[in-house]
Amino acid sequence: MTTGAHETLSARMADLRAFAATRATHSRSYRMDQLKGLRELFEDYATDLQDTLWHDIGKSTAQTNQTEFWPVKDEIAHAMLHLTDWMEPQPRSIPYALRPGKAMVKPRPLGIVGIVGNWTHPFYTLMAPLVGAVAAGNCLVLKPSMHTPRTAKLLGKVLPEYLNPRSIITVTGGEETLDELATQPLDHLFFTGSEGLGRRVYTTAAQHLIPVTLQLGGKSPVIVVDGSDWKTIGRRIAYGKFTNAGQSMVSPDYLLAVGHDVAAKVKDAVIDAIEEFYGPTPAKSTQYGRLITSEHTQHLVDLIQATLKGSVDATPARLVYGGKYHTDAAFLAPTILADVHPNSAVMQEQILGPILPILVVDTYEEAVELVNAKPTAPAAYLFSERRRIRKDFMHRINAGAAVMNVTVIQAALPSMPHNFTGAAGFGTWGGYESFRLFSQYRTHFYKPTQLDTLQAAYPPDPTYGQRFIDKLR
Question: Residues in domain Aldehyde dehydrogenase (predicted)?
């Protein structure tokens, strides 16, 4: 279960705790050296990591760079640039009645942080939060996704070469390993995955009073109200939806078009972008990814067929593009469904695949009401040239991020936090927010003894002191 050793997880956790107790990880120089080590890892093992991701999930070099490597590199560069400022104590004011004295809040490492990655982005979901945990001076327990064994094995091998080997362990396995990890004496557990597993991890961790951050995903909508450059709109929606074959926590899940004319224009624009990106035969394109398993492929095919068939509560949808699949090869072509009913099968769960359902609404107001009636999404996307609409969208939409005239790019910006809420998860991380998440902001207070201004509050008669304090207020 544990990479590179036959010890039990509990024994290795004890070793981590012992190293954390030495306070070796607290210094700025130590943290900076660790961040530099992560940067060097990219230089030495980029090709090997690209190969493992290709074999694990069929991700091309270009998509690996854009969705796995570059965002993590930016996180590292951002942390190295700002680490000194982040570590500075923060002075706090003291009421006159309690002066003289000195008050400050100082960040210090939590101790041991567990990070659970996900198959949607096997490298990014593990390494991006790891950067913040390292910058905050923590020891680490990593659990890569069981669905990406080659990537997990390589990371378990190379990370101790670039980080202090006494500060990190990697565990592999399925749900039993995850359950065991959630019972360990962690100071924080960061989980990316499905809602079902997230609830299970959260329940287990709560029994041991372990703070948890959850990234669970959800149905992120795209609302298209109007546009002036439909080619650009089509490209930006297609890029966000079909990169990584639609398997991203923040990829657009469904599209709401305001009016049939807008629906027709955006449909044609997305189709043109798909063929521009992947050619007329996506199965032959090296830029188009594969699904994680044949079982997931079959599940998506079943969703399409159920949506096309309709049900008592949902009228049948139309297949307007794509739909070709090869289950054994885990391939599903970019697929667009039109005239989708809100109660159809494809609207009942996060798709995590290359299927774009298009729903038509009469007004922008109706679109917002439909989105807000659903569980909170990781992100919501709007395309409109009207400033009033964009301003209203920012104030009213319920989502972890409100993004306008582009999709998914916000996830790659280290200066912007990831802030999932509701059914999408909870916890804020990314850049400085990751440093805060994995730090204890501890109160430090000092008061000299030469002048005891507190004596007015001491028994047996503190009333005079209280009147004095009231006047100072």
Answer: 18-443
